[in-house]
Amino acid sequence: MPELKTSVADMVAAARARITEIETPDAIAMLDDPDVVIVDLRDVRERQRSGFIPGSFHCPRGMLEFWVDPQSPYFKEIFGQDRRFVFHCASGWRSALSVALLNDIGFDCAHLKDGFSSWADQGGPVAFPDDR
């Protein structure tokens, strides 16, 4: 097995040291704020299996940079709105790395510190797809 120069855990720790992290109770309180967009980075299968935050916008991690960049042919208008964006994944690792990258390219956003699992565990509402 090759030895890596930096572990994923180290990358996440470095990202978390320089981004805005939102605690779960604070994110739950933001749910009805029309100026906040909660963005789900998880795979569609995770959303189907575990549910999702009602009203959240699904942006698969693999498309993130392309959907956020107004110069990209894949740009999504939602990311051009003057709103506060809070990204999340399952546990906060993918979203921490994603938000650090987005901040580096000039997109101001935050992430749900402990991810969707903490959202569900702390009583945040959860919706499921109709075709489940």
Please render the helix and strand layout as text.
Elements: H1 8-16, E1 20-22, H2 24-30, E2 36-40, H3 44-50, E3 57-58, H4 64-68, E4 84-88, H5 93-104, E5 110-112, H6 115-121
Parallel strand pairs: 1-5, 2-3, 2-4, 4-5
Q: Can you walk through the features of this model?
A:
The mean pLDDT is 96. Helix 1 (8-16) packs across helix 5. 36% of the residues lie in helices and 14% in strands. The protein has six helices and five strands, in the order αβαβαβαβαβα. It has a five-stranded parallel sheet with strand order 1-5-4-2-3. It is globular. It has a single domain, classed as Oxidized Rhodanese, domain 1. The chain starts with 7 loop residues before the first helix and ends in an 11-residue tail after the last helix. Helix 3 links the parallel strand 2 (36-40) and strand 3. With 132 residues, the chain is α/β, with parallel strands linked by helices.
Number of helices: 6
CATH class: Alpha Beta
Oligomer: single chain
Percentage of β-strand residues: 5-15%
What is the CATH homology-level superfamily? Rhodanese-like domain
Sheet with most strands: 5 strands, parallel
- How many separate domains? 1
Query: What is the total tally of β strands?
Result: 5
Instruction: Give the neighbour order of strands across the main sheet.
Output: 1-5-4-2-3
| CATH fold naming | Oxidized Rhodanese, domain 1
- Please write the string of helix (H) and strand (E) elements: HEHEHEHEHEH
Q: What class would the helix/strand composition place it in?
A: alpha/beta
Gyration radius (Cα, Å) is: 15 Å
- Principal-axis shape equals globular
- Poorly predicted runs are none
Mean of residue pLDDT values: 96
